[in-house]
Design goal:
Chain lengths: ~400, ~400
């Protein structure tokens, strides 16, 4: 598998565009379009929050019932959440406008929104934006990058990735982009993530692949414990790679899942590392677990702990908070068998052996914890299961962003 | 029921003392003693964190097996958590010293610690402190207040309460003190809370009363979602009020439970309002619930939401975050039937009716949310059950305290 430059336009037959529709921001792009020149099979996973934004409801229906998805239109600035019947009508009007401009069916159009909750979309601005998007779309890497920028809210950088793999003797390409910075604690999937690929695959297996991958990627990150109303991951596969269509869970499928996992773990980590106000990506790997569920519970409990996150911000090897967060995770383990290591580009060091602190150098630990990507490795010595979760530190800027920003 | 001035020394036969033992702080008291001149029945609830501090393990044993509890000794500065076998031996040595100084059994001594995790107690300083405490104890209100101050860590003020009620024709008094500011998300009970009373009651009913009351008080508060390793609530009842001993769940019992509930809700709210860095106590009351469990889940989800807490800090009526936190609580309800009000000393106003925002004044909402105690009232219109939870805002100072403080 090769990682290459690009994003959602990298797979054969995909185009993208971005435009500034003045939905909320006055000085930047805020609408994006992804388009496939031929119909795609699509798969999606969505927030489990029972307060679902209108575009989530719209997309759930399309993913379930449509076999000809061909476009995704996304706006930032307003989330179209808690907007009632009018909000849903605006989703429909958005999809209809896209369909008309692109000459496709309304049921081929997926819709995404992110931003402030509770405000109605300025539907005329949306419609005008769609006309621009339809006119401007191209297959260039620059267009994909522009789309990744247009869907940002409090994100500080665009998030995209592209990889190529050989499947059944053909080169298959997968590209993706996502956004997410606050209200990130996915339960099923994260805020907005869009993956395009030219692989030929059945709709059933595409959904199966996505669901498997989401558990190891978006469902393993947290910025602030808040599960959004808008979480959406969509994958479009248009089949233009020309590989023999994947319809069984054999080698071709496994290869595709491995690549899709890499793409989505990359995107999920980008979200965690760009958490609102974050100065560091914080990775917690639990090994020696009795079961995957146990390792998942412990790793997620640690990355979610406000006290641990604040300690990471302070570059403080405050291992007691990590042990404490493990202890209230709901998982059972023996605290007196736990080993804990900190690791980053600056080195690796053991802090706890069998539940007791070693005589480690605080200075060296602080050096390790001062890097932009830091890891805690926890061995609970009960079995072979493992899990990795990603979060970020908790900083003054998180407070600043969220005490001031009406999101 | 009358609220009166005082704390743990207010009930007949109770004395207290505080001393500066230089355990961690150099400029303040850090040890407290509560003593009853006659043996007490005692009840306790403890953290469910599987990483339990040594004094929690010690007290669980005493509460279960001892019928003659007579003293509680507490230190701040070091939590005696994650300290292994040595930590437990130090608990025992502490209890033995108290027993010797006071001329009581070792099994009559309860022990509490709060502060940094992972460090061993300076046992000689503890022993020296105990000698001072034994010498200095008095039944004065001032001694109770000094004890409440000595157990503080990042708390900004001492927390105590006293009430008197008539039970069976006799005046019964209940006094309490507690501490807690960070690592507050009790699952069973909060950090450290000590209640003394002269009521005559069986041990069994004292425990039953405490367990009932803890669910409506400490288990309904959160500062940061972190369930501590040290959470402990202890009640000592020495019987000196002279009421007919309460052995049945009849009127006397109900009256006592009502008073004990008021005492513990007061103490729990004091902890929430004095959360690390907090500028406001944030109360969330859910009414119209189908069941108590549902109302509890929704109210706790809202007070725990980092985004909601940051909005409260910003005096921002960001109702979308409240609806979002309700939605991921795990409880089922219809978002389109929700009514939401904000209330404080500055007034009350409705923000949402049937899931849709009213045309309310942001200026007026900000005024209401700028008070030191603010409430959100949520009606989900499904039944008669209700629940109230208490938290605080999330501020720059929370980050400051926890990025710098090795707790």
């Amino acid at each position: 598998m090769n990682k290459i430059k690009g994003g959602v336009t990298i797979a054969k037959g995909f185009e993208a565009a971005a435009t500034a529709a003045s939905i909320k921001y006055q000085d930047r792009s805020d609408m994006a379009l992804i388009y496939s020149e031929v119909p795609c099979v699509c798969a999606g996973t969505f927030t489990k929050n029972i307060v679902k934004a209108a575009p989530v409801v719209w997309c759930q229906d399309i993913v379930k019932n449509s076999d000809n998805a061909q476009a995704i239109v996304v706006n930032s600035g307003i989330a179209n959440a808690c907007t009632g019947e009018v909000g849903y009508q605006y989703c429909q009007a958005t999809a209809e406008t896209v369909a008309e401009e692109l000459g496709i069916e309304t049921t081929a159009v997926l819709v995404g929104s992110t931003g402030v909750i509770g405000k109605q979309l300025p539907i005329n601005k949306i419609k005008a934006g769609i006309k621009e998007l339809a006119k401007d779309k191209t297959a260039s890497v620059a267009s994909g990058n522009a789309a990744a920028k247009a869907i940002m809210t409090t994100d500080t950088k665009e998030k995209e990735i592209a990889v190529e793999i050989m499947i059944g003797g053909k080169q298959v390409t997968i590209g993706g982009m996502c956004k997410g910075s606050g209200m990130i604690h996915p339960d099923m999937c994260t805020m907005l993530s869009f993956v395009t690929t030219d692989v030929a695959i059945s709709k059933e297996l595409l959904q199966k692949a996505l669901s498997a991958v989401v558990d190891d990627s978006y469902n393993m990150i947290s910025v602030d414990g808040d599960t959004s109303t808008n979480d959406t991951v969509l994958v479009l596969a248009n089949g233009l790679a020309g590989n023999g269509k994947i319809t069984k869970e054999e080698t071709d499928y496994q290869q595709f899942v491995a690549a899709l996992r890499e793409v989505n773990i990359f995107l999920a980590k980008q979200i965690a590392g760009d958490g609102e106000g974050a100065t560091a990506l914080f990775e917690v790997k639990v090994i020696g677990g009795e079961s995957k569920a146990q390792a998942v519970a412990i790793s997620k409990s640690v990355i979610t702990s406000s006290l641990t996150k604040a300690a990471i911000f302070g570059h403080d090897a405050n291992w007691g908070r990590i042990l404490c967060a493990m202890g209230y995770s709901g998982a059972t383990f023996d605290p007196e068998r736990v080993d804990l290591f900190f690791e980053s580009k600056a080195g690796k060091m053991q802090i706890i052996e069998n539940g007791v602190a070693l005589d480690y150098s605080e200075e060296q630990a602080t050096k390790i914890l001062s890097e932009p990507e830091v890891s805690a490795l926890v061995d609970i010595k009960m079995g072979d299961a493992s899990a990795t979760a990603w979060g970020c530190d908790l900083t003054y800027d998180y407070i600043k962003i969220n005490a001031d920003y009406r999101s």
